[in-house]
Design a protein that fits this description.
It is a single chain. The chain is α/β, with parallel strands linked by helices. It has 2 domains: about 1-90, no CATH class; about 95-258, UDP N-Acetylglucosamine Acyltransferase, domain 1, CATH 2.160.10.10. The protein has 5 helices and 21 strands. The strands form 4 sheets. The protein has a 7-stranded parallel beta sheet with strand order 2-5-8-11-16-19-21. A 6-stranded parallel beta sheet has the order 1-4-7-10-15-18, with no helix packed on it. The longest helix has 18 residues, at about 40-55. The N and C termini lie far apart (about 55 Å).
Length: about 260
C-alpha cells in the first residue's frame, strides 16, 4: 500500500526547483526523507484509504456535492486540490497508481475503465469520453484536450498531448447513404465506426491537433500544431502543414426524413 504521493514525487518537484532556481527546498527535502520511512508511509496510506472511502460513498446528493467540491478546488501552484482529487479518483478510477496529478475541471466518462500510471498528469479541463482509456507513465495531457467517446484511447509512456487537441475514438462513416448528424438520428440511419486512438511511447501531439479514429501514432512521432492526422504515422516522423483539399464526394443521404 502506497500513499497518493510518495517520496519520489517530492524528489521530482525538488529536483525541478533546484534545476530552475539553483536552490532545493528544505521543506521538500524533509518531506521526501520522512515519506521514505515505512513507519510514516504505511499509516499515511491507511489514513488516505479511509478518506478515499469517505469521499466516494455512493450516497445520493452527498456524492454529487463531493464531486463538485473536489473537482473545483484550485490546483497548482496550490497542492491541496491536486491532493484531494488524487484521493477521490483513487476510489473511482479502475487502476490509479501513486503520484498521479489531476487538475480542476477534469471529466472522465467511464472511470472504472481507466488506467492511470505513475506520474501521469491530467491538466485542467481534460475530457475523456472514451469507452476505455490507458494513460502511461510520465504522460502529460495538457489543458482542454478532448478525447471523444465510443472507442478506446491509449497514451503510452512519455507521450504528450498539447492544449486544445482532439482525439476522435469513434465517428460517423459517410458510406451507404448514412446520415451523420449524431446520436439523435435513428439508429438504422447511422453508420457508426467505433475504434481506437493510440499514442506510442515518446509521441508529441501539438496544440489544437486532431487525431482521427483508428489511428496509431508510431513511437516518437511529432504532430504539429493544428494538424489533422487520418492515418498511422511512421516512427520518429514529423508531421506539419496539413492543408484541406477536395478528395471526392460523399453519397447522397438515402433515408427519408422522420
Amino acid at each position: 500500500m502506497k500513499p497518493a504521493f510518495d517520496e519520489a514525487f517530492f524528489k521530482h518537484i525538488n529536483d525541478a526547483r533546484n534545476a530552475e532556481t539553483g536552490h532545493a527546498s528544505t521543506l521538500l527535502t524533509v518531506i521526501e526523507k520522512w515519506l521514505s520511512k515505512p513507519f510514516i508511509k504505511i499509516p499515511l496510506a491507511v489514513f488516505e484509504r479511509i478518506l478515499t472511502i469517505i469521499l466516494t460513498l455512493p450516497i445520493p446528493v452527498y456524492s454529487t456535492l463531493v464531486y463538485m467540491f473536489v473537482n473545483n478546488i484550485p490546483g497548482l501552484p496550490s497542492f491541496s486540490g491536486v491532493y484531494l482529487r488524487a484521493l477521490y479518483y483513487r476510489g473511482r478510477i479502475g487502476t490509479m497508481e501513486s503520484n498521479v496529478m489531476i487538475e480542476q475541471g477534469v471529466f472522465i466518462a467511464f472511470p472504472k475503465n481507466v488506467v492511470l500510471k505513475e506520474f501521469c498528469f491530467l491538466d485542467k479541463n481534460v475530457i475523456i469520453m472514451a469507452k476505455s482509456a490507458q494513460v502511461g507513465r510520465r504522460v502529460h495531457i495538457a489543458p482542454n484536450v478532448f478525447v471523444s467517446g465510443g472507442g478506446d484511447f491509449i497514451a503510452r509512456d512519455y507521450s504528450c498531448i498539447a492544449t486544445g487537441s482532439q482525439l476522435i475514438t469513434s465517428t460517423e462513416v459517410l458510406k451507404g447513404g448514412a446520415r451523420c448528424s449524431g446520436p439523435m438520428v435513428s439508429a438504422d440511419q447511422r453508420n457508426v465506426l467505433r475504434g481506437k486512438v493510440e499514442l506510442m511511447e515518446d509521441v508529441f501531439v501539438g496544440a489544437n491537433a486532431t487525431i482521427l479514429t483508428n489511428v496509431t501514432l508510431a513511437q516518437g512521432s511529432v504532430v504539429g500544431a493544428g494538424v489533422t492526422i487520418a492515418k498511422d504515422t511512421e516512427a520518429w516522423g514529423i508531421y506539419v502543414n496539413d492543408k484541406p483539399r477536395l478528395v471526392g464526394h460523399r453519397e447522397a443521404v438515402r433515408h427519408e426524413n422522420n
